[in-house]
Amino acid sequence: MPSSPARARPTPSSSSPTSIRTRCARRRCTSISTSSASSPVPGSRCTTSSRATRGSGAPRTTCASTPSRTPHTCCTCHRGRSPPMTDAPVFPTLDPSIVEAVGNGVHHDPHSVLGSHRVAQATGEPATVIRARRPLAREVDAVLDSGDRIPLAHIGWGVWEGGRVGDVGDYLLDARYDDGSDWTSDDPYRFAPSIGELDLHLIGEGRHEELWRVLGAHRRSHAGASASVDGTSFTVWAPFVSAVRVIGDFNRWDGAGHAMRTMGGSGVWEIFVPGLEAGSNYKFEILGASGEWVRKSDPMARYTEVSPATASVIGETDYVWGDDAWMDRRRSTDPHQGPMSIYELHLGSWRPGLGYREAADPLIDYVRALGYTHVEFLPLAEHPFGGSWGYQVTGYFAPTSRFGHPDDLRYLIDRLHEAGIGVIMDWVPGHFPKDEWALARFTGEPLYEHPDPRRGEQKDWGTLVFDFGNPRVRNFLVANALYWLEEFHVDGLRVDAVASMLYLDYSRAEGEWLPNIHGGRENLEAIAFLQEVTATAYKRNPGTVMIAEESTSWGGVTAPTSAGGLGFGIKWNMGWMHDTLQYIEKDPMYRSHHHGDITFSFLYAFSENFLLPISHDEVVHGKGSLLAKMPGDHWQKRANLRAYLAFMWAHPGKQLLFMGQEFGQLSEWSEERGLDWWMLDQPSHQAIFDLVARLNAIYRDEPALWALDNDSAGFEWVDGGAAAQNVIAFLRYDRERRPLLCVMNFSGTPVHDFRLGLPHAGRWREVLNTDAVEYGGSGVGNLGGVEALDVPWGGRSASVSLTLPPLGGLWLVPE
C-alpha cells in the first residue's frame, strides 16, 4: 500500500512544545531548541557524533536544546561569532517513516514532503520550509534568486530541511560533498503538477481523445516566481501501485531522486524534471503490489531507442508540414466514393537500407509511375521483432526508430501527399507481445491485458489481448488511432485481425474461453471499442478511412454505428481473395468445374463496402508469389496473372496489391531481403509492370470502375454462366449510367465470335487487352474496337461479336 502522506503537527501554542531547527553561520552544526509560542528561544548545548549521519557523508555536530536561559553558544562553531537566529520558523516534525520513504524514493506523494511549503506560524506570520533529497551530501543550501542562502539540515535518509519566515520564491539547491565537488541544480519537487484536473477527469473516465498530449514525456516550460524554467514533464498511468519513479541516463538509471507523485485517485503519476532536454533515454520504475520493482518503457513514448535497445527517448518535433492543400481536400472529400488503388509495402524490405527520408524520392517516383492512389505501410509503430513485420507492437505512439526520427516519417508522408498519394497504415489494436519491458504486466500485474488468460491471451500468436472492458485501456487505443491520423496526417488505418477481437472463442478450443454475459461467443466489449474508435476517427477526421481486416461473415462491419454496425468504411473481402485464388491456381482445363469460385463473390459484393486484397499474407510462408501460383509454363503463368489482375481491377470494390506482384516477382516475399528488382530488366516482367500502370490509369479515368463500388446499381451481369468456355462478362456503371464492359476468358484457347448483349448499339472502344503484345501477350484481340449492332441478345436490345484472347481480359467503353 502507498505510504501515508506527512501529517503536520498542530500549530504551536503555549502548551505545545515544538522543535525549531536552525543552522549556524558556518553551517557546521544544527541548533534544535524547544520553545513555546510565548517563550524566548532557550539556549542549547552541542554534541558531536563521530559517525556520519545517514545520507550526509560527514560527521555531524548537533546542538541539542535544553530548557536553559543561557544564550546559545555552540562549542565548536560559534566561538567568537554571533549566535544563529532565534526567530526561525517553526516546522512540522515529520514522522520518521515519511522521511525514510522519501529518502528511499518510495513515497506515493514526495512533492507533499519535498520542495517548498508554506507553514503557518503561531504569530500569524507565514513561513516557508524547504526540503530536499540529497543523499551523501555534506552540506546543502537553498540558493534564492536574491543570492541569499538558506542552510538546510540533514534530518535522515538523505533528506535535508530548512526555511525562513516569508516566501522564498524560486531557488536552486547547492550540495557539497566530501570529495570537494559542488552540485548546484534545480529542485524537481518545487513545481506544480504539469497535468490539470480536467485532463485527470477525462483520463479517469476513459474519454481523453488527445491522451498523447498529457501522458508520456513532454518538453515544457514551467512558470516560476521570477522566470520560466524549461525541462521535461513525465506522466504515466499506473494504478494500484505503491510508487513510480522515472529513471534514465540523466540520473544514471537511479530513480530514487525522481520519485513521482500520484495524482489523486486517477492512477496517474507525475514529475517535472527541470533542465532535461530532448534526446535523453528513460523508463519508468514501478513498485507493484508484489513488492517488486519492474522497469518499463513508456506506453506513450513518441520516440524510442533503436531495437534491440528498449528505452524510451524524450522526443520533440519541430516539423513544419507542407501539405495544407492536401489536408483541406481531405476534409472535403469522401474517399469511399472515389478511386482507391493501394500499393501495400513493407518499408524495411522494399529497398533495404533506406530510412524514412531516403525512401521518399524513390518510393514516390515508383508509385507515381504505377499510378496508385494510395500506399499502405505494414505497421510502422515500434516493434522489437523484425520477423513480426510490425504486428507485435511495443511502442504504440512511436514510429519505429529503425528508419529514423519521427519527423523523418512526417517528411515521408508530407512528400507523398505533395505527390498526390494517400497514406494508409496498418494498426494493431487486438493484441500485443509479452516482452517484459513493455506493456505486458505493466504494473507487475495485468493492466493493459485482460487478467484472465481465457480472454487475455492469444496462444497461437504468443501474444496478449487488450482488456477492452477497461475504459482506460480503450481510451489508450482510441487516442492512438487519432494520434496517427492527426499527428502524422495518415489518411487511413487498416485495423488488423478484427475477427480475433470479435469472437471470444477465436482460435480457442472448448474450455479455453469465457462466454459473454449472455452466454454467447461475441466479445461485447471489443464490439463497443471498435464502434467507439471508428465513430471517433470519422467524427474528428473527416476524409479519412477506417479499414477492417475481418475474415468472417460478421454482419454490419461497414454499417454505421447508429444502425448497430461496427462503423468501418471498408472491409477486406477475404472471401473473394480465397475463392478467386483457388480458381486461378487450377489448370484451365479444370476451371469449368469450378466456375462458381470466380462468380460467387458477385452474390455478396454489395453487402459490405469491400476492398479486394492480394496482400503480404498471400505471398509468404510457402504460399509462393502471385505469379508462382499460376499454372502452366512461364508464358501461361504471365498470361494468367495479367488476366487475374484485369479481373481484380474490374470487380466491384477497391484494390490492394502487395509489393513485388506488380512486376511478377517469382520468389515469395521475405522480410529478410529486398525485392527481385533485377527482374524489371527483363521485358516480360517490365510488361507486367506496364499492365498494372495501365490498369490504374484507366481505373482513375473511368468512374464506372469506382463510383458505385458499394451499390448494386453499378453492376450488371452480361454472361455469368459460360462455364464450359471459362468466360464471364459484366458491365460496370458510373452515376450517369455510362458503362464499361469487362470480358474475361480464363481458358487457354482463343474464343471467336462470342456474342454478348449490350445496352446500346454503336462503336465500343477496346481500352484494355491483357493479351496485347506490349504486355507480353500474343496480340489476339479486336483491332482496338468493335461495332455493336441492333441485334437483341441476352435480354438486351443490342449485341456485339467479340474475339476473346486466351487467358486474357478485355475492357470496352462506348465511344
Task: Describe it.
- With 815 residues, the chain is of the alpha+beta class.
- It is built from 16 helices and 40 strands.
- The strands form nine sheets. The protein has an eight-stranded parallel barrel, surrounded by four helices. A seven-stranded antiparallel β-sheet has the order 5-6-9-8-7-10-11, with helices on one face. A six-stranded antiparallel β-sheet has the order 33-34-35-40-37-38.
- A hairpin with a 4-residue loop joins strand 26 and strand 27.
- Helix 5 runs parallel beside helix 6, helix 8 packs parallel to helix 10 and helix 15 packs parallel to helix 16.
- The longest helix is centred in the C-terminal third of the chain and has 19 residues.
- The radius of gyration is 36 Å and the shape is elongated.
- It starts with 17 loop residues before the first strand and ends with a strand.
Helix and strand layout, with pairings?
Elements: E1 18-23, E2 29-35, E3 44-52, E4 59-65, H1 96-103, E5 115-119, E6 127-133, E7 139-144, E8 149-156, E9 159-165, E10 171-176, E11 182-185, H2 197-205, E12 216-223, E13 228-237, E14 243-248, E15 261-262, E16 268-274, E17 281-287, E18 293-296, E19 312-313, H3 324-331, E20 341-345, H4 347-350, H5 356-370, E21 374-377, E22 381-382, E23 395-399, H6 406-418, E24 422-427, E25 431-432, H7 453-456, E26 457-458, E27 463-465, H8 471-487, E28 492-495, H9 498-502, H10 524-540, E29 545-548, E30 570-572, H11 574-584, H12 588-591, H13 595-599, E31 610-614, H14 626-629, H15 634-650, E32 654-658, H16 683-701, E33 715-722, E34 727-733, E35 739-745, E36 751-758, E37 762-769, E38 785-788, E39 798-804, E40 808-814
Parallel strand pairs: 2-4, 20-21, 20-32, 21-24, 24-28, 28-29, 29-30, 30-31, 31-32
Antiparallel strand pairs: 1-2, 3-4, 5-6, 6-9, 7-8, 7-10, 8-9, 10-11, 12-13, 13-16, 14-17, 15-16, 17-18, 17-19, 22-23, 25-27, 26-27, 33-34, 34-35, 35-40, 36-39, 37-38, 37-40
Helix pairs in contact: 5-6, 8-10, 15-16
